[in-house]
Amino acid sequence: MRKLVTFLLLSVAVMSAAYAGGINFKEGSWEAMLTTAKEEQKLIFIDAYASWCGPCKYMTQSVFTNTEIGDFFNENYINYKLDVESEEGAAFVQKYPVTAVPTLFVIDGDGNVRAKNEGAMQVDDLLAFGKKGLSAKAPEPINFEHGSWEEVKAKAKAEGKPIFVDAFATWCGPCQFMTKNVFTQVGGFYNDSFVSFKLDMESEAGQKFQKEVHDVSAYPTLLYFSADGKLLHKNVGALDQDEFVALGEAALDPDRQVYALYDAYKSGKTDGEHIAKLLPALHGAGEAEAASEIATKLLDETPAAEWHEEGNVMALFIAGTKPESKYYRYVLENPDQFLDAIGPNNYDAFLMTGMEEYLYEVVAAKDEKKFDYVKLILRSLKQADMEKVEASIAEIEKAMNEGN
Asked: What is the pLDDT of residue 404?
């Protein structure tokens, strides 16, 4: 669940931090950059980096110092370096997700992303990226229809397009995030590809939709229908811009539509390649029961020694949601098999799956044997600060003793 963080107030004077012969990066707050961009009628180039990141250091030392790069970016952009692990960076990534460093952005004075690239670039590639950013059009919002469901279907038939439905609730924070930060940016793709419909599920029209078309139990739920109202694809939960466009692209492709994939599975298409596409699609669609059934069947038909292989890891993440399941225990007891395959971060994420609910059960029952198992799990985390782990164990033990 994403929460927008209020940006720091404009209080720091903007100063230049020049690389001789290269890009002159300005210092100051993000709000100051936006203000400067509007005043100078320029776009902002952002290097979102981390201090420990090797490719980031390479860019700083070998690419940003290039004279041709410096001449181009200094003339055309407000340039800004932002450590994503700083306080200012943490606020920035709430609105502009960064999943790898370095991530390079071109953003206009209104805060709209014009271009984005994940990963380090050579001089020629960065120059091409900068030129692309200058020519990129300002994003446009999705044009949502506000009529009835029948009117939306009629429009979709007339235009020969499928339908996208944003099923939301007015109190829902992730829904508001998507409305403000995602739907305003991706209209170019969605307006060309879909007839879009925004529907408050708690309104009278929304209640009718749930009874007659499709029930919705979590928000936001993103639904894709054919023009005649057949459900094709679905995702439960908020997404960033790139993820949302990728979801729409999948909804247009019969080979990736979740319900087409599921129908094919039920008709006998059960090969590993098909299941590898089906499981994440069902998981994203919130079809937990179907996903769990398929994942469990796959794992039970596969030797445990092969569970760490790429085609089976997603099944483990779906079937192994309970710490006492045999799938979970196998991962816990055989870390060496999985660390190379999925990495320590994903390994830890797996171990924490279902932990909150399990802890409630352990504390409520004051079950010492299960508490020993909890301690084993927490102490098996690979990326955790062990001092904090031990402090957490002490807090859990205190809660058990106090019956809290």
From this structure: 67
